[in-house]
Amino acid sequence: MADFLTNIWVQRIGFALGGLVLGLLVEKLIVKRAIPFVSAGLDQGESMTISCNLPRCLSVALLLLTLATSTYVVALEGQSGSPPSQPPANWGPISINLEDVPYPHPVRFMERTLYGQNVRIAYMDVAPVGPPNGRTVVLLHGGSYYGWYWEETIEVLRNAGFRVVVKDRLGWGRSSKPILPYSMNLHASNTYALLESLDISEAAVVGHSMGGQMASRFAFLYPEVTTHLVMVNAIGLTDSRSGRGWREPVGGSAMPDLQRVYQSNLALEQRRVVDWKPEFLEHVRIRYGMYLSGEWPRLSLVRAMANNARSIDTVVHDWPQIETKALVIGGAEDGPDFPERARAAADALQNGQLILIPNVGHNPHLEAPEIFNAELIRFLGSGSSTSGIQRW
C-alpha cells in the first residue's frame, strides 16, 4: 500500500512539473513569434496584448489539464483498497505455527497428552482494564483464522471489565499440529481443560464460523461451566451428512500452484465480506505464506482431517438440549441461506435469540466491529442495543 501511494505522489509531481515546463516553453515560443500578428492589421500594442494573453491562456489551460489529471490520479488512489491481482513480490514463507505473526497479547501454552502425543494449546489470557466484573469470556476463532483476529473484541470486552481467554485451537495458529482424529468433542475438551488449568469455573463462550460449532458443542457438553453461548456466523447450521459418504483426508502437494493458491484464498476472503478493506489482505498473506513453508504438507493434512470432522460431527441435534442463554448473531449477507438457517438455529435453542446485521458478511467482528461488539456487550449483560438490527 505504501508503494502504491508513493507512486501516486510521484505521478502528481511529474504531471505538475510537466505542465509547468510545457507552459514556459509555449510562452517563449509565442512571444518570439508575436510580431507577425502586426501584419494582420493591428498596431504593435494590440499585437503584444494578444501575444502576452495567448501564452497565459495556454498556461492556464495546461494548469487545468494538470489538475484534471491529478484528480484522475486521486480517483485511482480512492480505489487503492482493491487487492492486487498477483501476490506481492515481498510476500514470503510464514511458519505454520505463526511464530512470525504478531499477536496483540502474550501467548502462553497449556500442555496435554492426546492419543499418546504431547501437544501444546496456545492461548492469550487478557486481564480486564479497570475494575473487573468477575466474569470471563472465551473467544474461539473460525476455521481459516487464528486467535489474534479477535483483537478489537478483546479490547472492548476487557474495557468492560471482562477477563478474556482466546484460544488457538489444536491444529491452528500457534497450537501444535498433531496428526490425530479431530472432533468437536476433542476441541470442547481442550477448552474445558484450559479453563480448569486457569481456575475458571464459569465463562461465556463465543465462537465464530467453525468456532461457533465448537462453542455450541462446549455448551452441550459442559452446561455447568457455560453462562452464555454466542454463535457468530456459525457454519454447520444444518445436518448435511446424508449422501456424502466418507473419504480419507489427504494432504496437499509440497509444490502447489502459487498463483492459484493466491487467487483462491483472495476470492474466499472477498466472498466473506460486503465491503473490502485493505487490512483484510493480511489474512490472505498469512494463508499464502504457509503454503510456502516447508511444513505445508503436514499442515494441509491436519486441516483436511479437521475439516472432515467438521463435516461429519454435526451439532444441530445438540441445540434443543442446550438450556444456556444463547445468541445467534451474524452478518445478514453471509450467503442467501444464512438468515433462514440462523433463525432456525435460534429457534432450536431453548433460550436462543437472533441478531442479523444488515449489509455485513461472514466476519461481522472485522467488518462491522462497532455494531458487533455493542451487541455482544449488550447480550453479556451491559451496554445498550444498537439501532437498525433485526432482532427476534
Describe the protein in words.
With 392 residues, the protein is an alpha/beta fold. The protein folds into two domains: 2-78; 108-391, Rossmann fold (3-Layer(aba) Sandwich), CATH 3.40.50.1820. 43% of the residues lie in helices and 14% in strands. It has eleven helices and nine strands. A nine-stranded mixed β-sheet has the order 1-2-4-3-5-6-7-8-9, with helices on both faces. Strand 1 (108-114) and strand 2 form a beta hairpin. Helix 4 (184-197) crosses helix 5 and helix 6 (258-271) packs antiparallel against helix 7 (281-291). The radius of gyration is 29 Å and the shape is globular. The two termini are 42 Å apart. Mean pLDDT is 82; it is low at 1-80 and 382-392.
Tags for this model:
392 residues; alpha/beta; Rossmann fold; nine-stranded mixed beta sheet; 43% helix
Give the strand line-up of the largest sheet: 1-2-4-3-5-6-7-8-9
Q: From the 3D coordinates, which CATH architecture of the largest domain would you assign?
A: 3-Layer(aba) Sandwich
Q: Give the strand content.
A: 5-15%
Which descriptor suits the 3D outline?
globular
Low-confidence stretches: 1-80, 382-392
Q: Estimate the helix proportion, in percent.
A: 40-55%
Order of helices and strands: HHEEEHEHEHEHHHEHEHHE
Distance between the termini: 42 Å
Number of strands: 9
